[in-house]
Amino acid sequence: MSKRWLARSAAVAIACLPALISLEAISTQPAIAQAAVNNLRSIDADAEGQLIFRTDAPPRFEWTPDLGGNYQLTLFDTQLPLNFRTLPPPLSLARFEINRQGNNIVIRLRTRPGSRLEPPVMTAAGLLGLMLPKASLPALTTAPPRLTPLVPNLNPIPQPSVVGLPPLTRPAVIVIDPGHGGRDPGAIGIGGIRETDIVLDISTQVTRLLQAQGAQVVMTRQDDREVDLAPRVAIAQRARATVFVSIHANALSMSRPDVNGIETYFFSAASRPLAQAIQDRMMQFFPDMRNRGVKQARFYVIRQTTMPSSLVEVGFVTGAEDAPRLADPTFRAQMSQAIAAGILDFLNR
């Protein structure tokens, strides 16, 4: 969870927006005089799903698409400093490469089937931005999500009861982040149970419980799809979330079924009370489960968010004690109540 879509350095910004594809190269020469040496300082992904190119001065650029989903962005008379880091491609792109070519920088991109890029746009302020395909940032929604099957041959998922949950005493926006999804199933445990299915089910029920208590809740994914780490953080930032809770299931090894238990993580001091409140409630609901405690960690989604954030591990899919519980819809309903109660306890402090 250490993927990073940032390469920082002080500079002027650039951003790119989509438009209709033309087979002709699109170029522009800004009216502002070019510096003798222009440097590309960083490429960031902003909360709106744009790639932001930060340079010392507005660059001359050329945009060349073709019919095969390949694109080339050339920044003329622009250099890569030695401390520039090449970034991993966003999930919405099949290819993203940055190369030096003489005095220019050449960026090659390829979209995935069914998507396209439109030409970048330079504003008068010198902001060059490239809008990524819409699939790169899931739509922010507060509607009850659509359920997907968990694992074969499981009983229907019971609707959790709101009995015993403390009422929410103030307005709050809560972002619930089901870990993994799509091509990334997370851990696969005893009996073939998959982390992605377990945490989506629990997250969905947590969302409904919190909505029933009057909270506005946003999920980073609502079905079995892959969402990268940076867009998860962006969703929380864009929603101006009061709290962010990422839900996961743990794993070690099939050869270590003796390792079981629940634990909760935080990064900043401001987030520790949230993690503690959730852990306390989980142990209240499941006193016979092993208490692995509240720990500090540098997971990307709790390190990059600016609101109180926590990452919850609801048990080990590889654990002899935990795996049967995680496969049980009654347990998952109770776990959703415990997590929701912990979030409400924190918000009602």
From TrEMBL:
<keyword id="KW-0732">Signal</keyword>
<protein>
    <submittedName>
        <fullName>Cell wall hydrolase/autolysin</fullName>
    </submittedName>
</protein>
<keyword id="KW-0378">Hydrolase</keyword>
<dbReference type="GO" id="GO:0009253">
    <property type="term" value="P:peptidoglycan catabolic process"/>
</dbReference>
<dbReference type="GO" id="GO:0030288">
    <property type="term" value="C:outer membrane-bounded periplasmic space"/>
</dbReference>
<dbReference type="InterPro" id="IPR002508">
    <property type="entry name" value="MurNAc-LAA_cat"/>
</dbReference>
<dbReference type="Pfam" id="PF01520">
    <property type="entry name" value="Amidase_3"/>
</dbReference>
<feature type="signal peptide">
    <location>
        <begin position="1"/>
        <end position="24"/>
    </location>
</feature>
<dbReference type="InterPro" id="IPR050695">
    <property type="entry name" value="N-acetylmuramoyl_amidase_3"/>
</dbReference>
<feature type="domain" description="MurNAc-LAA">
    <location>
        <begin position="233"/>
        <end position="344"/>
    </location>
</feature>
<dbReference type="GO" id="GO:0008745">
    <property type="term" value="F:N-acetylmuramoyl-L-alanine amidase activity"/>
</dbReference>
